[in-house]
Specification:
This is UBN2_3 domain-containing protein. It comes from Cephalotus follicularis. InterPro entries: Copia-like_N. With 257 residues, the protein is mostly helical. It folds into two domains: 116 residues, no CATH class; 107 residues, no CATH class. The chain is 66% helix and 0% strand. It is built from twelve helices and no strands. Helix 5 packs parallel to helix 7 and helix 8 packs antiparallel against helix 9. It is elongated and about 75 Å long.
């Protein structure tokens, strides 16, 4: 009968046929995340790193408390290699200064737990307040519609990560998501420049309101249409001026003859 400890170890035993296995060369060349951990961006860093490690099927090394195989075990060398591979991923995803704080950690989960306990800022009140303040002041201004929407989306995603609300029933979750979607539509529309008042009014007249992505798509098409029309206006003006110039030249040529 397999003991609980042996069972946990077995779950971390690498499968040689696993297509997600990583070669040493690949390990050295990997870029884990664009969010280098610097001590103030824990949530963005941990989220992007977890996606990467899950994609490599190695999340057990940072999410589960598992007893390593005995050093005499045939599995130990492989476990050690994969654990150190994950350690290197975590270290390489940090700034040099931050990585030095974890240089002598030998177990991947110890690094993961230490960063969470030290930098996760479980009381997110100040971070949430800061992001909501940024969102309150954010408007399109000189940005394109796409840049404006992308900026909003980044801050919305950060809020979603910090405000991890747990509802007791699916109906409450669905209702909350509908309210949140509508609030984000209002925020997006309120921040648009004045020349887009017409399309904003058309969208607000739709019942029920479309999704925030659909609203963005409609506004972006209107922005493109306006650019095309302005371009055509310039082209027409230039064409008219050219025709007048050609007519004047023809008249002058006739007078010379």
């Amino acid at each position: 009968m397999t003991s609980e400890s042996e069972s946990s170890v077995a779950e971390l035993t690498p499968n040689p046929s696993n297509h997600q296995s990583v070669t040493p060369l690949e390990n050295n060349l990997l870029t884990i995340t664009g969010h280098k951990f610097n001590g103030s961006n824990y949530h963005q860093w941990s989220h992007s790193v977890m996606i990467f490690i899950c994609g490599k099927d190695k999340e057990d090394y940072i999410t589960r408390t598992t007893v390593p195989p005995e050093e005499s075990s045939a599995r130990y060398r492989t476990w050690k290699a994969e654990n150190h591979m994950v350690v290197s991923w975590l270290s390489n995803s940090m700034t040099i200064e931050m990585g030095e704080n974890f240089m002598y950690y030998q177990i991947a989960k110890e690094i993961w737990d230490a960063t969470r306990e030290t930098y996760s800022n479980k009381d997110n009140t100040s971070s949430i307040f800061e992001i909501k303040g940024i969102l309150h002041d954010l408007s399109q201004g000189e940005m394109t519609i796409t840049d404006y929407f992308n900026a909003l989306t980044r801050y919305w995603q950060q809020l979603d990560m910090l405000e991890d609300i747990k509802w007791h029933c699916p109906e409450d979750t669905q209702q909350y998501n509908k309210i949140l979607e509508k609030e984000r539509i209002y925020k997006f529309l309120l921040g648009l420049n004045k020349e887009l008042d017409e399309v904003r009014g058309r969208i607000l007249s739709i019942k029920p309101l479309p999704s925030v992505r659909e609203v963005f798509s409609v506004v972006r098409r209107e922005e493109s249409r306006r650019k095309v029309m302005l371009g055509l206006g310039t082209t027409i003006l230039t064409s008219t001026e050219s025709s007048a110039l050609a007519a004047n030249r023809g008249q002058n040529f006739s007078n010379i003859q």
